[in-house]
Structure of Phenazine biosynthesis protein PhzF family:
Amino acid sequence: MELSIYQVDAFANAVFQGNPAAVVPLDAWLPDAVLQNIATENNLSETAYFVPEGEGYHLRWFTPAMEVRLCGHATLASAHVLFAHLGYNKASISFNTLGGNLLVRKVADQYVMDFPTDEPQPFHVLRNLEETLGVQILEMAKGTDDYLAMIESEEMLMALRPNFRMLSELKTRGLIVTAPGTSTDIATRCFFPSFGIDEDPVTGSAHTLLTPFWAKKLGKTSISAIQGGARKGQLHCELKGDRVELMGKAQTYLIGKIWV
């Protein structure tokens, strides 16, 4: 079977920035084992698949190790493929996903994703996690999928060299480490070793937790954000009640064919 595949740099102002995602449009679902094998073969943090469903699409995401509940950058990448390459011409795209109904619209050269918020729950500081990171954690919270740890500065954030084996033992999808930004409101790095991703360059789903967390601290609902270590991407976050709008750009890196 021949399938089209697109590789898109999401939350990127140019190629080689942001977070690369593979997107494979389908007419009908293939067996889950095939979807997982393709994602493992791609060896990107996420491979997205979508199938037409009603007026929108059913969207799923796979890491090299497993299917996930919510993924922002591969949603943005999927919308980019539809708008830029597959002739989609409506005002917005509706995606039915494990994480709920997600809407994406195109505004000039950017995409705006409408996601449900992940309200942070206060959580005690894990001292063994401080030892793993090698920095003081000022505050912790827990979301649906992840722990969130706030540290003092972006400089300390960029210097982190986590022990991924120890992080893989956390009883969550992973760890979000965040600090006040220098050129943006906030800066973040995300680590998901138990899901086969030591560090994710830009994680849209993490910002559904970060946005309400930082909105309370900053006293505003419009937040500029940067994420990543060696590879970075930028996005803008708007808190709107129980929803978060995430805005960013996408760049097509590759269009090809795969045979399965």
The mean pLDDT is 95.
